[in-house]
Fold each of these.
Amino acid sequence: MNKKTVRDMDLKDKRVLVRVDYNVPLEGDKVTDATRIRESIPTLKYILEQDPQAIILMSHLGRPKGKPDPEFSLRPVVPVLIDLLDKDVQFVDETVGSKAKDAVNRLPKGGILMLENTRFNEGETNNDAEFAAQLAQLGDVFINDAFGTAHRAHASNVGITRHLPAAAGFLLEKELDYLVDAVENPKRPFIAIIGGAKVSGKIEVIQTLLTKVDKLLIGGGMANTFLKARGQDVGDSLVEDDALGLAQDLMNAAKGKLILPREVVIADDFSNDGQAMSVPASEDVPKGWRILDIGMGAVSAFKDELKGARTIVWNGPMGVFEMPRFATGTVELAKVLAELSREGATTIIGGGDSVAAVQEAGIADQMSHVSTGGGASLELLEGKTLPGVAALQDK
Ligand code: AMP
């Protein structure tokens, strides 16, 4: 990576302002998945070892509308952090302003403070220069470890870099190493698996990946549009009629690299309780039925395609995995990836629903890399530069 990292910065006696991504799921005031908090710990521990004056943490959580909203307070992450760091962490219910400044000034040497949600301020998402300057007053050095928001140009990750020396944390560095390397410099064969609801949301990633991969396996709802473009009736399946031409063009451009599921699971109701069965994907789907998952025949065909792959990137579920009955394709494919990982392939799960799926299957730790950012990882796979990364100092 050509950007400075936390290792390149002089942190001794400095107030280190760290942008983390603690946009975690909550139930009431309990954090239900602490992955993102856990992933920030190596950076925080490293900074503490450099004998800083203090660490000041900032993050957003959810989508409050530019003003304080108790539902989106970051207070619930504090006990989790204390537990993971085994150190006291203070909290202030303000992001910038006199209360936040006082809290920073009162910190003991080596103390840690979590600021309230950056998005409680209108200036955050519109990257307001004044808000960025106020944030910057709270620190001497800026470290960005928030990969999940790196594709957004906000005040707490981009605006702030105009005021302070700025470098990447270890999590940001690790995400970039895996995801950029996969597209720029993959060990081959390189195979991508793309699923999820719609083709339209992932056109760019499919187009970019087709120029880089050896094969592209398509599953999930978006496969329906390709099947229909190939001339099949897909019954009542989710399909994007206005993307049929595009799907056809992509298949033509792919010259056989693009591989669709061989077998699908169809159901007579969009629920866990109707009738469901596996059918060859080459058959027309009867009216009143819809494709909700890939079948085991497709999983085993995908497994054959994946055999020998040295780099595999996966984004998007193979079916409506939120319903247990239609999660089989996604979960079984995750197990195939775990097996390939053990055999030495680099397996990268690119954020969002596919991460939830490998976590649910209990095999996230068997993958080479599970990304903490859905939107950000998709943009990297599209070959884009992330504004949160571009704003950091060059090495
Ligand atoms: P995305 O955000 O584009 O990755 O899409 C994820 C969503 O796609 C999940 O909520 C799945 O339920 C949905 N999905 C996957 N396969 C299908 C399908 N065959 N029909 C309808 N929705 C699907």
Amino acid sequence: MRLANLAGRLVLVTEDERAIDVAEASGGRYGPDPMSAFADWRGFAVWARETLADDRPGLRRKTIDRTMLGAPVPRPPQILAIGVNYREHADEAGYPPDSLPVTFTKFASSLTGDQARVALPEGNVDWEVELVVAIGVGGHAIAREDAWSHVAGLAVSQDLSERVAQLDGRFPQFSLAKSHPGFSPVGPWLVTPDALEDPADLAISCAIDGETMQDSRTSRMIYDIPELIVRLSAVLTLMPGDIIFTGTPAGIGNRRTPPRFLRAGETLVSRVEGVGELTTHLV
Ligand code: ZN
């Protein structure tokens, strides 16, 4: 099942990629706010599956204009982002894996959706394709065997990063350097894990103007999705609607010789197998 934020309204995405407005189809029980899905994720998921399965006559299906897609989770209570979570990227960054995942936040004002136009600030802006996990059911001290049942869905994302400010001082400025407006594109929609053959092993890649920059598999994560949920929820309480940026594979611009950064006029396309394709226009 796929959920999207179409012009600020929660929609279900049909197999032929058309939108069913949730507020309209549920008679106001859920929606129109995309965050309303997380007030009672399990109840909502049952209703949504039934609605998609039964071909109710008179249920309106609208064509999706991709430029109208917003971040599928527009106002997460918490945004967690993980650094150096892929083996090859850990090697290129020179970090040893730690017992706690390297964790920072991306401020919510940096969220945007598919087809976003992102203005490049001064400095060196780098790409980081990532899989985003949205939490459906919150919890503290979640057990590994229960972890997937807390997940609402997965989305494609970029953790755009301005490297000069990130690496300038004595201590890394992950959160600020990764939170310029539009620096957290997420989309194109949220895909529930049951829609994927193996949600733990998905091809993940990104390309600038058609040239592949990163190309890996999510099974190469040091801490996989259940392990991230275990280790993060051992410390903090995860809340419904939280999102986790799960880290980027090798191939970022800062680690190339010579370094290579994003330029105005370029188009960044990020893909996760079975989840979708997210396009970001740099201006
Ligand atoms: Zn990242």
Amino acid sequence: MFILSEDSQRTQGRDAQSSNIMAGKAVAESVRTTLGPRGMDKMLVDSSGEVVITNDGATILNEMDIEHPAAQMLVEVADSQEEEVGDGTTTAAVIAGNLLGEAEDLIEQDVHATTIVEGYHEAAEIALEAIAEQVNEGEVDDEILKQVAESSMTGKGTGGLTAESLAETVVEAIRHVETDEGVERENVAVHTQVGASSNATELVPGIVIDEEAAHDAMPSEVEDASIAVLDVELGVRTGEIDAEYAIDSIDQLNQAIDAEESEVQGYAETLAESGADVVFTTDDVDDRISSFLAGEGVLVFDNIGNSDARQIVSATGASRVGALDDLEESDFGAADRVRTKNYGDDDLAFVEGGAAAEAVTVFVRGGTEHVVDELERAIGDALDVVSTALASGEVVPGAGATEIAIADKVRSAAAGIEGRKQLAVTAFADALDVVPRTLAGNTGQDPIDALVDLRAAHESEGRAGLITDGEDVTIDDPFEYGVVDPADVKREAIESATEAATMIVRIDDVIAAE
Ligand code: ADP
Ligand code: MG
């Protein structure tokens, strides 16, 4: 009996499992070489020829246009990792891929999928305990935060800038938005502008938006600004211009022109008298009004984007006003300074200081589009990890040390687990080894030798990672070399990788509509 349409495709049992597992593994494999400080970059070219060069796991997977449904689940692992903690996307994808690879071997040995799933979940619990044991003892101070930022950026294309100086900027930015309630990460923006060396990257105490003054004669800088944010068209309303005048004498024509002139003049004067010296509006501004306000020393921006308007409102404390008659002084926002600056084809407005300085912008410069784009991703990750580390106050050693510790603890615990589940728990530990093994491989070392040395060092010293410094690779305590990751990044990687791998393993029937 056929219950499905003839066009639908169905794969069942082992076939379904192995096809899904293969797809998941392939995804993990595709990002493996980018892991760590010596990871390589990928160049992705889309169908329209647009090029992205990146080292960022989530970016690669999203640009790859992956279709296989099981492979898509690994992309989701990277996405949720990015969303929750902002870093560790490659790690999570690579762990998930290896959990799948280990599961495949177990299935070959006739271990049932349910047993694998149970074993993996149990192992993940033990892994979280192992992470807790690796957490730093002291306080997470600026020094450690800088290390967290730097560890997340090493290996990324940071142009001519050292990860060290960028790390300092990142920590300063996050400290700037720290309040009693916690870190207001959303108050840190990153704005990129091509055209200078990346050394010109700086921290702006306020916001930067892509807007240009409505008139050339307007001041390029206003100090102590009272800022009005309007959703008002400043001019003769479009409807009235289109209306037909039944004009049959020169007098009537002159009258109509006069009426229009005085309406325009009225708007201009109302605004000038309101006391606002910087005006942002989401609508048009008549040239005559711009010109008049320029004469009054008012800086006006017209047709600004809705999201820019929201940013200005939130940074300066202004209230958006929908009708000119409603504009009152209490609606004004404030900033120490509003200035405009031209960068070749682009004009930018800076709203800085005073109330506006509750927000802060990392103003990223770089020679080419590719450099600033990758710099923006690296800084974005660094901002995320620093705020994650600051929020929880917990960091763990990087460079594979935490993964080795997890694998060790899980492997020991496996001995006490009965039945075939023990095999699954051991397999989980083996899958975790992939991180140090990959770090070693990406630095040109023999992965097996490195793993053996690392395990031995972990046995005797307790904390041991594979630290890369330029061309040198040392096995030692990563804390002493400033290679640290937020504990939450590792937790999230374990949880999301386990979840995706177990979900894929459990599927034994794929029914695809045409
Ligand atoms: P992910 O997308 O998972 O964050 P990365 O390419 O950023 O991938 O690599 C992160 C890994 O690199 C982490 O395990 C981190 O501890 C490690 N790492 C960072 N700096 C160093 C270093 N100097 N030596 C060795 N490992 C490092
Ligand atoms: Mg990273």
Amino acid sequence: MQNFWIRVSMPVLYGALLALLLSVMFSVTLALIFMLLVLLVVMGYRARQLYKLGEWLSDARLETIPEGGGIWDDVFSRLYKMVKRHKETRQKLAMELLNIEQATAALPEGVVSLNEVNRIEWCNPLAQFHFGLNANRDIMQDITYLVRQPEFIDYMQAGNFDEPLVMKAARHEDMVLSIKLILYGVNKRLLISRDITQLERIETMRRDFVANVSHELRTPLTVVNGFVENLQDMHDLSHDKIQRALHLMAEQTSRMDHLVSDLLTLSRLENDQSPMRTETVDMQTLLDDVYRDGQMLSSDRHQHSLEMTGPARLSGNRNELRSAFSNLVSNAVRYTPEGGAIKLRWAVRAGQAVFSVEDSGIGIEAEHIPRLTERFYRVDRSRSRETGGTGLGLAIVKHIAMRHQARLEVLSEKGCGSTFSLVFPEKRIAA
Ligand code: ADP
């Protein structure tokens, strides 16, 4: 401070000393005129520096900082340091902001920052996609004006944000979102959105599956239960009646047995923890077995044939392949009226190995074909049941095909028979 005053008053002091000298050597008037001139020069110089400072402050950039002499050097150098520090802090903050923006953009969830009256302050790209927002156009818009679903507006207004809201995305068909509002800071709000379409689908499948299994098991169980109750109530039971009841009960228990065994097969195939054991499968013996199974199942009601021009060996799992092939043959037998023909073929088509089962049976309408491999999907429920079907056969075939990187092809026309083919990739053909 003291130093400052000394430096500020130095030019005036020097001037005053010189004026004193002039008054002694010449006259007081000359000294006063000289002093006045000194003061005018000092004021002019300071006014100029002040002007330069004012000009610079209107666009304060490091490169254009003015140069000064004396006390102004000090002022400008301090200003220079201050602006430099400020610039560095700004750069650091900008970097941090960019980092935060990049991190939130990479989040697997949509994030919208809202103010206390639900106006959008900022949102990441995923939130823009979920809600159909535009980060430039919709900033400071009320989100309830942009997302108009009543359940969303109710959620935002209810004020109870403990549980997330599950709703369909208005802009995307079939997309299900889980939305949660989080309060933070002073009246600040974060809206988090998550795409749970896949989870919902799995949950629906699980529910349908449990309902289907329960339904499938209930029918035979009710029948068996009915017979047991009847047997308990009847006192004059003849041997024939007992035999008939036991026969019908055995039919139903065998149905349950098939169902449970197919369910276990499916669950084993779906379980990623049980990888497929691959071996070199001799196709001649495998196909002979499958062919014989088909003949036995058909009990001379159909004409069977086997044509084998395909590779002698395939790399895969024998038990799984046998199960898939037998399922296709069993379907052909069950859905082909007596007298029909069932042709098994093992051939090469465009370098790929193809197993196909062609029947002259009832055929399938085109609309059903894409859904045949769904669990429990049947075109004709009662026909499937009457012939001992579980509704899981083609689901099992599809899984086995997937485990062998093969695909299932279905060609069918109602009333004109069907051809089910399993097409194996070239790399599965063993040398
Ligand atoms: P299911 O035990 O009912 O036969 P699948 O999964 O094996 O179950 O087959 C699903 C449905 O596909 C069957 O219910 C049947 O309607 C139809 N289907 C399968 N194979 C044939 C076929 N060869 N001819 C006609 N329909 C078939």
